[in-house]
Amino acid sequence: MDVKICGLGTEQTVDVAIASGASHVGFVFYPLSPRHVGPSHAGQLAKRAKDQRIKVVAVTVDAGDGMLDAIIEAISPDMLQLHGKEEPWRIDEIKDRYGLPVMKAISLEGADDLAMIDEYADVADRLLFDAKAPKGSALPGGNGVSFDWSILRDVKGDWFLSGGLSPENVGAALEVCNPGGLDVSSALESAPGVKDPDRIRAFFAAIREAEAA
Ligand SMILES: O=C(O)c1ccccc1N[C@@H]1O[C@H](COP(=O)(O)O)[C@@H](O)[C@H]1O
Q: Which keywords appear in this protein's UniProt record, sorted alphabetically (predicted)?
């Protein structure tokens, strides 16, 4: 299973994520986020991951071409994660312009929201299901909020699950749905934006335990 550790900001935590088993590392380019990294620092972190053959994901929110140009120049990502309100036509445009795989985040609360899948399944290379942001949150993702995973029980495909995953609940999530990948951020932090190496290790230990059960 793919596992993406998102919102990394130091060489140490990039190394811990990779040593623990991450397939993907994510860098957040959204100034309102406590996990925001500037292109030059992200470039150094991304190089570290690429040297270890780990996929680098740039997380953006309704970014314009100028911002995407700068991110791609700085970190040469393997994938773009679009975590805003990007519509299908914009995803087509981004794919045409950059030739990179795109993962589109879809916010879910209840089964009615699954209709969004049809809208994006053909245009995005991968879908990522996240919880809807709480009212008033400045962030469209990275809120540490979960949703009812059972609505995904019959959803086919190689999608990523995210939204409030943690060492404590990832086993339960894997019992009720069948993602191709897991994406986690805020529950692995000791403070907003500060990843905790022990929490990263604990997340992978919990996945291994669930897979062995
Ligand atoms: O992590 C952020 O700060 C962030 C900001 C803007 C868009 C997306 C962001 N993170 C993504 O949110 C989900 C869920 O994170 P969490 O585990 O609930 O904290 C994940 O896909 C991150 O890539």
A: Amino-acid biosynthesis, Aromatic amino acid biosynthesis, Isomerase, Tryptophan biosynthesis
**Which DSSP string corresponds to 89-103?**
HHHHHHHHHH---EE
Instruction: Determine the distance separating the centroid of ligand 1 and the alpha carbon of 68, expressed in angstroms.
Output: 18
User: Residues near 10 by Cβ (< 8 Å), separated by ≥ 6?
Assistant: 45, 195
**Secondary structure (3-state) at 147:** coil
pLDDT in the model for residue 105: 98
Pocket test for ligand 1, best of 147, 185, 188 (most atoms within 8 A of CB): 185
69-92 pLDDT, tens per residue? 999 999 999 999 999 999 999 999
Q: Is 8 in the pocket of ligand 1 (CB under 6 A)?
A: no
Residue 43 Cβ inside 6 Å of ligand 1? The answer reads no
Which tens digit of pLDDT belongs to each residue from 187-206? Answer: 999 999 999 999 999 999 99
User: Residues 6 or more apart from 92 whose CB is under 8 A from it?
Assistant: 123
- Reported ipTM: the value is 0.98
- State the alpha helices, DSSP H only, in 6-127: 11-20, 39-51, 65-75, 88-98, 116-120
Between the CA of 121 and the centroid of ligand 1 the distance, in Å, is: 21
Domains of the chain: 2-212 (3.20.20.70)
